[in-house]
From TrEMBL:
GO terms for biological process, alphabetical: L-tryptophan biosynthetic process
Alphabetical list of InterPro entries matching this protein: ADC_synthase, Aminotrans_IV, Aminotransferase-like, Anth_synth_I-like, BCAT-like_C, BCAT-like_N, Chorismate_C
Domain Chorismate-utilising enzyme C-terminal: from-to ranges: 43-307
Keywords: Lyase
Origin: domain of life: Bacteria
Name the record gives this protein: Bifunctional aminodeoxychorismate synthase component I/aminodeoxychorismate lyase
GO molecular function, a single term: 4-amino-4-deoxychorismate synthase activity
PANTHER family: AMINOBENZOATE/ANTHRANILATE SYNTHASE (PTHR11236), AMINODEOXYCHORISMATE SYNTHASE COMPONENT 1 (PTHR11236:SF50)
Keyword match Cell wall biogenesis/degradation: no
Amino acid sequence: PPAHLALHWFERCTETDPEAWLAQHGGEAQPAGIGTPESDTAQADYLQAVRDIQAAIARGDTYQINYTTRLHLTAYGNPVKLYRRLRQPVPYAALSCLPDHQGQSRWTLCFSPELFLKIGSDGLITTEPMKGTAPILNDGQDEQRARDLQADPKNRAENIMIVDLLRNDLGKIAQTGRVRVPEPFKVSRFGSVWQMTTAIEAQAKPNTRAADIIRAAFPCGSITGAPKRMSMQIIRDIETAPRGLYTGSIGFLTPCDSGLGFSGTLNVVIRTLQLAPLSDGLYRGVYGVGSGIVADSVPEDEYTECGWKARFLTDLAPEFGIFETMRVQQKQCPLLPLHIGRLKQSAAALNLPFPDSIEQQIHSYLAQLPDHGLYRVKAALNPSDGLSLSHAPLNELPPGQTVCLSETSLPPQDYLRRFKTTCRSIYDHGWQQAERQGAFDSLFFNSDGLLLEGGRSNVFIRLGNEWHTPALDLDILNGVMRQAVFADPQTHLGTDTVHQSRITREILMQADEIRLSNALRGVFQVQIAKA
């Protein structure tokens, strides 16, 4: 194959219960989710591209173009569990993990509702292009939207163009007069959208080979436009990147004793998330989304339609919440901008909605606290409940604090350690166990023997005249107080520079001084507790 392609040969296929398989391989408790997707095409650029396509239509270059863009995101956790979380009742879904041309395993999470080719044992070939979309909003108007979609002249015209194209494609390998359209303009529910489809059937000529069928019909006209070849050239010129597997096909062929000697099913690869590994449990994701552009398309409406089609992905909230704990004295929280900034950044990184009103809600809550006294204020943001705020009196920490060394070894990489999430039972157990032993916290190391952080603190050590702290690329929380130290190390550590370093257990034990940082307690000196 060409250098950028990988050829896979499957020895055999064994049927299995998909529900049982998915539960076995993706049923773990560890979270799986995505960061907030970002489009490779700004809205203004998208609208201009649609206008450029309409100019090509006006020149007579094409009748319709399926214009697509890409969403880029970070995904974390087990891809099988992520597939289960995103899974929808669609007929042509697929999950695969295969090496690419460089030998790297890449995951494909395909949730396609669209049939490209169904080849029957009797030689009957069916294709069911999908053109026409309306959202499902569960607001009591969804059935009316389905009826409106079925009757809409624009969507019908768009559908007819592609049906004519596919009839012509199948006509190349069909018996004379054996191409028909049994059910035009069928509207069905697929996840969060209504889709209009039209089935086309063709009886293949005797001795037609699988390669003949694919050569005649691929790629599916619903994801190119009409006429096909010119539309594909326009797509190459106007889209920002090659589509790769997106809008291609996943399927299978199996031998049989009748008809053409084989049967099979192939989908159109849409509604598909592709994952490439970045590190252990962390992936770079790409999701393609598009719509059919015709002469009377409204660019803004097409942009909105792409949002509908991606909603099942973009609305995937994390399985946990995030929170901040703030030191408030006499209604003042000096670190408040850092707390709000981290809350907002974490929400974006974890695809958690962050309404504009949150910052004002926090300010209003602090303003209602008593005029005097020291308080611990918790701001928690959860997918189901939104923002919740609570407070409790806080006593000053007495001097002479100690810290334990945890025996629990953590993975070298863990994306979620970068955020203050509610999914932190190991850390909570660590500091709570330390508290029972009269210490403030437990320090954790990874399996490479490198110091990470405490269950509720960051750590700084002095070696001679130099201060060091674990580096952020070890996947540790960039604590609010840690940020304050880096902003003004002279005030907090009496130095101008803090080095982000690899600190082993041996180096820690040789430290001339150890300090912890915590947003409630500031920066304070500790000793290692005796075992």
